[in-house]
Amino acid sequence: MKKLMPMLALFLSFCMLCAPVAQAETLKSLRGTEAVKGDAPSENYRWEKDRKPLPRQFVQQPPLIPHTTKGYLITKEFNKCLDCHSWDRTADTGATKVSITHFKTRGGTELTNISPRRYFCQQCHVPQTDAKPLVGNTFKPADGLVK
């Protein structure tokens, strides 16, 4: 038995080396089959004008931003969005208040300021646009949101 195990291991190793190597599939993305040369700088995109917010498409969808955010600075020391959307500024600006959910920790404890996990607005909120979908789909808005 002691001699059989090394022989079996040697045989299996030999079989693996002799097995035909599978050809790698050619990857194809929305950009085609060419290798990605890097993302286009954001200046190549058209910024939308301010307008009425688009309706939400599913329950719990973060609202889309109905105005440009070009040049908005959001760092750990400063958040440009809060110049208009903080609770003490909305009466002056007419902007929508930051949701009360943004003042809660993951465990549900209410804070006196925006939760660090909700501070960087553009993690969830994006400027709205009328861009055509990159790929076809059959998505339909949630029944409760259809007018």
Automatic annotation (TrEMBL):
Signal sequence annotation: 1-24
Q: Where is this protein chiefly located? A: periplasm
Protein transport among keywords:
no
Against InterPro entries, the record matches this protein to: Multihaem_cyt_sf (IPR036280), NapB (IPR005591)
The cellular location(s) given in this protein's UniProt record come to: Periplasm
Looking up Pfam families in the UniProt record yields:
NapB
Keywords assigned by UniProt, alphabetized = Electron transport, Heme, Iron, Metal-binding, Periplasm, Signal, Transport
Instruction: Please give the function described in this protein's UniProt entry.
Output: Electron transfer subunit of the periplasmic nitrate reductase complex NapAB.
The UniProt similarity line reads: Belongs to the NapB family.
Please describe the quaternary structure of this protein.
Component of the periplasmic nitrate reductase NapAB complex composed of NapA and NapB.
The name on file for this protein is Periplasmic nitrate reductase, electron transfer subunit
Species this chain originates from? Iodobacter arcticus
